[in-house]
Design goal:
333 residues, alpha/beta, Nucleotidyltransferase, domain 5, 10 strands, 19% strand, binds 5'-O-[(R)-(carboxyoxy)(hydroxy)phosphoryl]adenosine, binds zinc ion
Length: 333
């Protein structure tokens, strides 16, 4: 039997809990989404998020440990998301993890949320091998990294303004779509045809691996506010927005592979669920003989499994853990 690591994710609006076994793999994971709670406000309300994490965490931990067919006293270590994220929401997970760790007398490891996303494709049945390039596209981050091992990450490029997911969400909002916007905009785009609206591809030819998405969002706003705009055109506009965003993400990912001489691309974060992005990346990679890896769909968005897994990899390299059991979070890590 391997070491069992409990993972806790509460950085934003998902409460995620998982048990990962260093030999048997992922034993169980549970995610509770707060989408319904925040929908009426058109975005995540931090205070409500914290309260809901507090309400659910004890029951979710109990339920997940039971589903993993083990007991709390068989847990060897605990990992929790220490940042980046909403301060109050992070403190719920951190406080819970440190207290549980103290009572079980096991090490507690603070985990970087993006490291969780970054390593999540390694949980799949056919995982990539180090080294690889990672495209991290979430609601808060858009980064290209070169990854040569656990903790060995080199930033190649990142967004200078909005994150890709944020651009999807804000564009959806200004087009009057519901929350969360990204998946809804993508669904609408699949009913439309790109090519009618001449939207920009920001920084496509900047010569570096950085991104910018706020100009694209503004371009959509100008179309919607312009004369002759008809709600009937929304699907085509959504398709054009998606095409422009995907074009830039694909071009920069290929440039990163080319520049680093690597042949594996790992896509992580919520926007990695986007079908058009996947299709275009796969097509481009095939031409070059490169491979693209995606986490399982349920592990693309926030979850406890990626935190348990990242914690397990770090735990195996040495128990570590936070000094003195201090509850520490880093909202802007
Ligand atoms: O990784 P994630 O669950 O949370 C963060 O850590 O940010 O990513 C959520 C982001 C949101 O911005 C959401 O709109 C976006 O991922 N997203 C999508 C799709 N599914 C989720 N964006 C575009 N197309 C999708 N299918
Ligand atoms: Zn995330």
């Amino acid at each position: 039997m391997g070491k069992r690591v409990l993972g806790i994710e509460t950085s934003c609006d998902e409460t995620g809990v998982a048990v990962y076994d260093t030999e048997a793999g992922l034993l169980a994971h549970t995610v509770h989404s707060q989408i319904d709670l925040h929908a009426a406000y058109g975005g995540v309300v931090p205070e409500l998020a914290s309260r809901d994490h507090i309400r659910l965490l004890p029951a979710l931990v109990r339920q997940t440990v039971r589903a993993a067919d083990c007991r709390l006293d068989q847990i060897d270590a605990i990992g929790y998301t220490a940042g980046p994220g909403l301060a109050g929401a992070l403190l719920v997970g951190a406080g819970f993890a440190e207290s549980l760790g103290m009572s079980l007398d096991v090490p507690v490891l603070p985990i970087h949320h993006l490291e969780g996303h970054l390593l999540s494709p390694l949980l799949s049945a056919d995982p990539p091998k180090f080294p690889f390039v990672a495209l991290l596209v979430s609601g808060g981050h858009t980064q290209l990294m070169s990854v040569s091992g656990v903790g060995e990450y080199v930033l190649l490029g990142e967004t200078l303004d909005d994150a890709a997911g944020e651009a999807f969400d804000k564009t959806a909002k200004l087009m009057g779509l519901g929350y969360p916007g990204g998946p809804q905009l993508a669904a609408l785009a699949s009913e439309g045809k790109p090519g009618r609206f001449k939207l920009p591809r920001p920084m496509l030819r900047s010569g570096d691996l950085d991104f910018s998405f706020s100009g694209l969002k503004t371009a959509v706003l100008n179309v919607v506010n312009g004369v002759g705009w008809k709600a009937d055109d929304a699907a085509d506009l959504a398709a054009d927005f998606q095409e422009a965003a995907v074009d830039v993400l694909v071009a920069k990912s290929l440039a990163a592979l080319e520049a680093s001489g690597l042949s594996q691309l790992v896509v992580a974060g919520g926007v990695g669920a986007n079908r058009r992005l996947r299709a275009q990346l796969d097509r481009a990679a095939k031409r070059k003989g490169w491979r693209v890896f995606y986490p399982e769909p349920e592990l693309c968005t926030d979850n406890g499994a990626m935190i348990a897994f990242a914690a397990a990899l770090r735990f195996e390299r040495g128990p570590g853990g936070s000094p003195g059991g201090a509850v520490s979070v880093r909202p802007r890590w």
